[in-house]
Structure to design on (603 residues):
């Protein structure tokens, strides 16, 4: 819960930055202001939310306890501190703070330590039983390692501490860092976790291992081609065009295969009625497909570089953030239900998980959110930054509404009184879960 | 070379039965130096401890479809033969006092029913339940209440069979 709360706080920071006109599209896509925005979103919001979800669900994926329960909180502290120092470094780089470029490598070191704890803890846990979805997590963690390695080199390079190799990597290697992070770490891991969550919540058989292995292989190959091929291309000074085209084709194949797997889960579900989190997750899958379509269209018309921001915006806020928000809604309800009623279950009448939520109220906020994401993508493609800021304001409204619903779930606000706290049950704390 | 007697408890597990007594009977029939080659539909973890107490080392190997082959090999120092001859010393799980079919219930109803039914068991009694999925969130709740459990998927992967035993 602490990870989720911290992640949501960073999401609000990122939304506030966009409303205030900090970073892309108000500034250049490689400006220090854009770097602040991008890292607040990718590390603060998405990576923290993903880590929080993985600490809960990797043990479920492998049916084994976490390698170490003690790592989660120090990792969160290191990641938060590292991100703050890194952002301060970007502020300094952009001239908003007195020059102190050593902040960048310092932030990178803290982030490497924090992510290192996460990778070791989750990696060793998933390694015990690397079946279907756990394999996605392992590849995602490997991609995370590649991402932070690139990031650390850039941070040292910006401080002038990485020598000529650092300079070469910094001028050409940014796409590799971004693809490993967004594609490898966040997307492949989100895919892996979604397989199990979707099957669990819809009572569907798990996707056959051989089938999902193909999806993973395409995705893993895309990341491997990007990192290894990209590194080689930079070393040979031959340009990244061929490597990036190959990675794009493999990435598209992986997204298409993932679509096939998700369709299988939906078709074979035992629970016909779809809960809110599923209906909203569907919009996130549509966004992933939309991201692929936009990417292909831009590449065909040779305008990909000009509209990179719109492409990344749809991937980050439609696909990844949308999925995280939809699943957060369900995960918080489920974990709160288990925490509160697990100890008295079978001994006293308990509410159902669905009694903790008010889906009607939450639906409208999700609709506001997704509509704003769609509109935001269009305004970016059309090059209308002022209207873009309006859509971000609408998005913020949607997120505020969703977060308010999640807090009400945590407070058991929707559970009718005789069932709310049956003999011996203790109301959960807002931020700290007992299990 | 150790000679192994084959014991296949998969049909018993598939029909929802309790294989412990069969395994223990096979154990009593062993000649000195003989071992058991056990086939099961899941990795029989609790059995390892019981067999180690009786002086058997184990090595296991996963077969296709989540099934397991386990070799129980007598250790060089033989345990007290009298203990082997006395079945009351073995931890036998009795026939389930209650059988639940929770396959068509929406979660978390299966979990609620199993916990409610388990609380009604007399000391040492067992219940068995059929489920659609591995009840990963139920296990910690059972352990917190002092219950022990054994579970695994049937070979077709469609049904999860769980046996829960009340503390004796």
């Amino acid at each position: 819960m602490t990870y989720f709360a911290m992640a949501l706080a960073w999401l609000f920071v990122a939304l506030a930055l966009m409303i205030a006109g900090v970073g892309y599209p108000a500034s250049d896509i490689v400006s220090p202001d854009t770097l602040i925005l991008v890292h607040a979103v990718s590390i603060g919001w998405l990576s923290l939310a993903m880590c929080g979800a993985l600490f809960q669900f990797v043990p479920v994926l492998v049916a084994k306890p976490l390698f170490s329960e003690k790592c989660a909180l120090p990792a969160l502290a290191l990641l938060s501190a590292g991100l703050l120092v890194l952002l301060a470094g970007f502020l300094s780089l952009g001239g908003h703070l007195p020059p102190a470029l050593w902040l960048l490598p310092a932030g990178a070191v803290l982030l490497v330590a924090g992510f290192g704890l996460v990778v070791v803890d989750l990696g060793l846990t998933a390694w015990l039983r690397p079946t279907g979805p756990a394999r996605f997590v392992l590849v995602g963690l490997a991609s995370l390692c590649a991402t932070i390695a690139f990031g650390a080199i850039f941070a040292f390079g910006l401080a002038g501490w990485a020598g000529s190799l650092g300079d070469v990597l910094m001028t050409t290697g940014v796409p590799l860092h971004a693809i490993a992070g967004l594609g490898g770490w966040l997307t492949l891991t989100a895919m892996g976790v979604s397989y199990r969550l979707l099957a669990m919540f819809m009572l569907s058989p798990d996707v056959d291992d051989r089938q999902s292995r193909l999806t993973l292989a395409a995705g893993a190959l895309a990341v491997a081609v990007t990192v290894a091929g990209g590194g080689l291309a930079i070393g040979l000074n031959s340009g990244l065009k061929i490597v990036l085209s190959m990675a794009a084709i493999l990435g598209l194949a992986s997204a298409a295969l993932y679509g096939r797997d998700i369709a299988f889960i939906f078709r074979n579900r035992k629970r016909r009625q779809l809960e809110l989190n599923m209906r909203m997750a569907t919009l996130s899958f549509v966004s992933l497909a939309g991201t692929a379509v936009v990417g292909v269209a831009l590449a065909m018309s040779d305008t990909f570089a000009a509209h990179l921001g719109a492409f990344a915006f749809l991937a980050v806020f439609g696909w990844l953030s949308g999925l995280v928000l939809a699943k957060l809604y369900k995960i918080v309800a489920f974990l709160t239900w288990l925490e509160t009623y697990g100890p008295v279950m079978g001994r006293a009448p308990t509410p159902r998980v669905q009694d903790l939520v008010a889906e009607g109220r939450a639906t409208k906020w999700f609709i506001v959110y997704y509509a704003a994401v769609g509109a935001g993508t269009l305004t970016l493609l059309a090059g209308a930054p002022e209207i873009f800021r309006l859509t971000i304001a609408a998005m913020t409204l949607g997120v505020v509404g969703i977060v308010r619903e999640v807090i009400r779930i945590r407070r058991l606000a929707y559970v009718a009184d005789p069932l709310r706290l049956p003999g011996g049950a203790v109301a959960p704390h807002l931020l700290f879960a007992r299990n | 070379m150790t000679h192994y007697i084959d014991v296949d408890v998969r049909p018993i597990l598939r029909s929802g039965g309790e294989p412990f007594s069969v395994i223990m009977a096979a154990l009593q029939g062993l000649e000195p130096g003989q071992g058991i080659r056990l086939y099961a539909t899941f990795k029989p973890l609790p059995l390892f401890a019981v067999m180690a107490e009786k002086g058997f080392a184990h090595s296991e190997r996963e077969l296709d479809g989540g099934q397991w082959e386990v070799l129980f090999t007598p250790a060089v120092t033989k345990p007290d033969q009298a203990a082997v001859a006395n079945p009351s010393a073995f931890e036998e799980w009795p026939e389930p006092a209650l059988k639940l079919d929770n396959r068509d219930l929406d979660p978390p109803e299966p979990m609620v029913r199993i916990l409610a039914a388990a609380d009604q068991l007399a000391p040492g009694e067992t219940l068995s339940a059929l489920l659609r999925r591995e009840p990963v969130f139920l296990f910690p709740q059972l352990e917190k209440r002092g219950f022990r459990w054994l579970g695994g998927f049937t070979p077709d992967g469609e049904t999860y069979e769980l046996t829960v035993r009340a503390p004796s």
Q: What stands out?
A: Chain B touches chain A through 23 residues (CB under 8 Å).
